[in-house]
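Sample pair:
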Amino acid sequence: MADHAPVIKNRKAAYDYHLMQTYTAGIVLTGTEVKSLRLGEANISDAFCQLENDELFLRSMYIKELEQASYFNHDPRRARKLLLNRNEIKKIAVKLKEKGTTLIPVQLFFNENGFVKLEIALAKGKKSYDKREDVKKRDIERELRRSE
């Protein structure tokens, strides 16, 4: 596809969580949702993934309603089904049973065929001192780059 579809990232993900393993999932969307995503009108920073009856769902992701869509519009925060193969879902289900493990969206993008894909990651929450360490490392690296 020649158009430049935006990549929507969850900037809080790497700051708040230790990302362990990532998966790329398809996502079930309506036409108005895809059009809004092409315009970059979405936010995944509050979203989370939930396992229900051996199916994965993305909850609380915001996709802005399309103004031109009239009554065919979508609900901006509806639950959206994620498409992974059965083996991947089983592996994720086993990992999610571990204490402190969660599944979060990392980035939303269009692949080379024009399909919307969501990169999700198994993650463990960081403690506040871990976050401080990360900020300290980033500051040190920035200072080293400046001094070169």
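The chain has four helices and nine strands.
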